[in-house]
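Entry 14: structure prediction run for HTH araC/xylS-type domain-containing protein. Input pasted below.
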Amino acid sequence: MSANSDSTVHGNIVQRLYQLAPHEGYTQSLLADVRFMRSNRPLKNTAVLYEPSIVIICQGRKRGYLGNSVYLYDAQHYLVLSVPLPFTSETEGSLEEPMLGIAIRLDAVLIAELITLLEESGSHSVEEPRGMLSTPLEEPLTEAILRLLDALATPAEARILAPSIVREICYRVLVGEQGGSVRSALSHYGQFGKIAKALKRIHTNYADVLEVGGLASEAGMSAPAFHLHFKAVTQTSPIQYIKSTRLHHARLLMIRDGLTAAAAGSRVGYESASQFSREFKRFFGRPPAEEVRTMKASLDLLPPTHLVDIAAPH
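Run finished. Output tokens:
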């Protein structure tokens, strides 16, 4: 593809997103696993929790901060998460040039099928698994993104064509520059796979009593080994991960469902309202009521990758 043609494709993608995401915040597409993102302003130091997903920023820029690593995702790079991870994000956008993007939730059944077919072909090597990575956006993927947006513009094409284009996008990610790491992570092999299953358990049962010793036992690891491998994947300890998961869900309940801090804390497993408020303020930097007001004002209401679907169907 020539430079002019590439520029035309990108321009068409941006124009489509202006149409499909007319309002700031997150817009559900006609396909359940796809949402559009728009921010007309910069957003600094936003605590987010993404589930396994592909996040493609087509205009503007986002950075993710996890441990000591920085992950850039912009018009030239996309983000892939193979496990649910809490991290801090930063968004660059303005009224004149909004941040525009697409979030595609990774369907476990589809991914397993594609990985099996790739393994049977024997033409692709595997690499060290990673829970989160930023990788260059290549031409075939860019073209598939435009076709997906075109399909999502009408109900018939969204229903008939869009699912196969999402399948193609997932394939392109799995065979891309860092596809080996993505495939290894999503295959859930080895120690990484054991931690991935523990993370799923936490997200499914975050309101229950979760003992680290029990999680380690379920993973078939000693407690020290579980801590070591857990931190290698998430850049945090199991206790802190469980706490951040509960706090993110509580924030969502307050924003989406209008629950009070006490009710939200109780819903996610806190027995003490005062302890919940203390830990919430320590984690988000603001008391619950102030955080909810701020988030509603910025319209950064939901993580772009369907955290709401983990908390409760909609």
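Notes: The chain has 14 helices and ten strands. Will compare against the previous run tomorrow.
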